Queue: 2 jobs
Job 1
Amino acid sequence: MPDEALRNTLRIQRAIHDLTQAELAERAGVTRKSVNAIEAGRMVPSVLLAMKLARVLGVAVETLFILDATGADRI
Amino acid sequence: MAGPLQSRSEKFLRFSRQSMTVLLLLVVAVGVVCVAMAFHPASSTWSRALAPLWIVAVVIAAGLQRTLGGERWDARIPEVRAIVEDEWRRSNMDRARRVAFVVVLVVQLPLALLLESLPSLRAVIAMASATITLGLATLLVVFLYLDRDGADAG
């Protein structure tokens, strides 16, 4: 079975939109701790939260979270 | 725009952590007094010790409320709802709950051996008090550790 991992582009998308973790968290209705944990790859968000984050950042969920066989930012 | 809102959110987060720390201290204090009462039921010192504890609890609760700067912990406030429904905090609470459950299971035998010398009713009271105290204290300590500010630095 291939070694798959979930990679995310949250930090990049945040930078594009010039948002801090706290600002993104507030808009998505979570705490900045959740945003930080997702960014750092320590937490896999629920589908609901992933979609909320994607909506806030104006991108598709697949842009934000990428299933990667090699996986940097592995979750 | 985000400035005041951000600090408001942080204020509620800080309040939540402080409340849990106070709850931890109260749980430990009440638990220690209950176990001590089971060992020395004749002494009235323990029951007298519980009365001021409630006064201290009320004073601390009032002090904590002041840190919110006139606001109330209300689930209808978006920042409070975000904290209550936060996925990271929930996953930390689940992990803390699992650790507390294992700790409670593991300590049963040592506790039983330790309380063997007590009369059965007092041993049951001591065992129940110690189990509840240990379980709740472990839950709160592990949660506060996982949810600490250093854990999300990066």
Note: The helical segments of chain A are 10-16, 21-28, 32-39, 47-57, 61-64.
Job 2
Amino acid sequence: MAAEAKAPTRRVSSQRTPAELLRVIFLPLGQLLAFILGSAVVLGLIVVVLAFLLSRSDPKILQTALAILPQVIIDGIVRGFLFATIALGYTMVYGVLEFINFAHGEIFMVGGFVGAGVSYLLNQWGILANLPAILFVIIVVLIGMTVSGLLAMGTERIAYRPLRNAPRLVPLISAIGMSLVLQDTVRLVATNTPLGFNARFETPNFGKPFQLATIPLGERGIPVLIGPKAVVFIVAAMLMLLALNYLVNATRLGKAIRAVAQDRTTASLMGVNVNQIISLTFLIGGALGGAAGVLFGMNIGTVNPYMGFIPGLKAFTAAVLGGIGNITGAMVGGIVLGFLEAFVASYLSLFTGGAFSGASYADIAAFSILILILIFRPEGLLGESTTQKV
Amino acid sequence: MAKSSPQTSGTGVWAQLSGLLGRGPGGYAFLSIYALVTSLLLLFNPRTNLFTDIVFILFLLMILAIYRTKVHIGFKIALGVITLGLVLPAFGTLNPYYIDVATQAGIFATLALGLNVVVGFAGLLDLGYVAFYAVGAYLWSIFSTPQVGLMIAGATPIPSGWFYGFILVGLTVGGVFGVLLGLPVLRLRGDYLAIVTLGFGEVIRVLAVNLDKPVNITNGAQGIKDIERPPLFFGDAFRAIAGAFGMQLDDNQLYQLFFYFMVLVVVLITILIVSRLKNSRIGRAWTAIREDETAAIAQGIPLVRMKLMAFAVGASFAGAMGVIFASKQLFINPPTFDLLRSIGILTMVILGGLGNIPGVILGAVLVTLLDLQILPRIAEILRSAQKAGWPIPAAFDPTQYQRLLFGLLMILMMIFRPEGILPEDRRRQELHEDDE
């Protein structure tokens, strides 16, 4: 790139004071925390009111509902960060290409599998058990991010770039095909290696769950627990969100990404290499998805080739909920959706006397939210409304 | 086989050959010999093996040849009636496996034609199409078995003679579901619609798994078994005719033939309706919406109503076919209606040619044959190669890798021939407008 093009950019970015920079990076995190608190309070209140109304017929309900509330909130946070990290990949790609990368759920799954594979190898070599947990997390997450990021870049190069100027449905169908191909390729590899279809994710000992509090109920209290892996997940997810904020809002690359998202043609006239930026966007989104896959697999303990589909769909819902194309929106959407799901999963069967199993209706709740959002507020919680261009 | 369409027929031998066999006396001779040879090969060698597979595929592709060749329409119809109405059923009594494949191909052809109305005509990508099929199938399954007694206390299964009426009920209920799903989501842009319909398909499947409590409606993951088949009121007559040719038919064979003919009739009716729709005012409105929504609104086309109609028409075919499918299959459970089925139907439409009716039927037949015949055959070959010492992983079974197949078909078709094998003229222009 020409040197004179560089000079003014430097000047502009240097005009930003450190305070402003910090604000840009940490403001979304603040928003995120506000939404975590808000969701917890609003949903908690709804649960309490419902439980209070129902407690007239069954006095035990109120007590039980209150007792499990803190655990449900923790569960909601973990789910929320999962959806948020996957949703970032959807929203970034949508931002630059206006295209739903259907295969993103599979990129997430591949990350999980790479993590399981690495931990399997470490175990075979006999060094897994002695590895410090933090070092282990860093190794598997970095490898998972690299593989998933490169894979996402590769899928773009093979299946989407040749179709960039085709009618909208053409790349979408290609992406659906890519998602199926990835699922079965991973299955082919997994079932023919010692990993197997349901691959175990071996980890070193992370230690006991942290006990945050004890709720007095009956003779012995109900402990509020958070597992160390869940803590790792939340911390890692927050770090990634911060890094992404920095990258998008405060670097030259981020500026180029924003420019391409705003107007591809004009950006290319300004000297931005559009193809390269799109590739890098897939790389970043894929790496985030892969990291989420590794952390998720570690948290759950097993991975399988079809595990990416439903979280992928929900993460897309989260991206739409927050306003697709909007990075902070994707995080917020993920958190809100995670909370809603955790609450439905835990309280539906309690409130209906076991008639509906909450875990399976949580999926339905997520899709209903998607439909409702698309009807009533298609621009999402944080999105700006756009009009259709002719 | 006359695979010559004006734009693919190059020069040289192929063009000359298709010119010679595609019309006139050459065409008559070609079709007659083709039909005679394949029919005789099938009837005198009905065992299930690779050779019969190939002949069977050639036999089905003959329908395409009949369609493409320029001969007198009466000759075409006569040949079609002989091959599909006599030869194939006779072959089916000798080898029940192949007529089942043909029936499946017919079922999928109807579904693909229905989906084609939504995706091909109106340009709305529906990834949850199988949900409407499931609704039809569950409808008949619940009401024809004691399951209905579990849902409504004291209710008894309706007599199996109601089957024919229930096809219409399935048609209506499918259409109603199409409208119900369509109403909220049709204002959305194309790619959102795809995701929402995908979610809807999942919701229907999750409901099918979970609606065994509080009230047992679908019997959950166990599925519903012993689904009633319709009474064969002409069974004795048919047996007598077959007996005159020296064939003894048992009940199962009769039912197989019955469902084969039933599906054949439904396919023909569907083709008739769909092709009439396509050339109607409604069909032209769909095309306009597909090509440019904004321009279509400007032309005064009621956008949402037209999209709803496409959704309802597509869904009602699936609903009606669901009733027939449940009755043929005798047993249904939720995994029968998973996403893979929807994707499979979409692959048929894409492979054959979005929007083009013969193309879609070709796609349905090809994918069904690929799925039910070619993949198992490849698996067999791989197994024998493995025994002979080839390094083929033991856990690799091609019949289990439909996703890979569908996925590859989709990507390759989108990159190299997005208009499908038998393209619709208008669609080809649309996709290649910047090539010229």
Note: Chain B has two domains: 15-94, 96-367.
